[in-house]
From TrEMBL:
It comes from the Bacteria. PANTHER family: BSL5891 PROTEIN. This is DUF3311 domain-containing protein. Keywords: Membrane, Transmembrane, Transmembrane helix. The lineage of its organism: Bacteria, Bacillati, Actinomycetota, Actinomycetes, Kitasatosporales. The chain crosses the membrane at residues 17-37, 49-71.
Amino acid sequence: MSDAPEVGRGVVTPVRVVIGLCLVAPFVAMLWVGSYAKSDPTFIGIPFFYWYQMLWVLISTALTMIAYRLWQRDQRARASRGTGAAAKGGAAK
C-alpha cells in the first residue's frame, strides 16, 4: 500500500443538482436569443429585448445568492459528518 492521501470524489446530491441548475439557468436564458429577440411587449416604453435582459441581471443575482447559500450549508453538513476536506485536515479556515 502507498502512503498517498486518499482523493475524495465529489458526490452528486440533490442539493448540488439545484446549485448547478441555479448557476446554469441564466446562461441558458441568455444564450437562447430567439426567445427574446423581439421588441414587443414593451415595458414603460422599453423594448422587450432590453428589459428581459435587465430582468435576468436581477434573477441571476438571486440565483447566484441562493446557490452560494446552499453550497455553504452543504459544506457545513459535510464537515459535521466528517466527510468534508475540513474534517480530513485538508482545508483550514
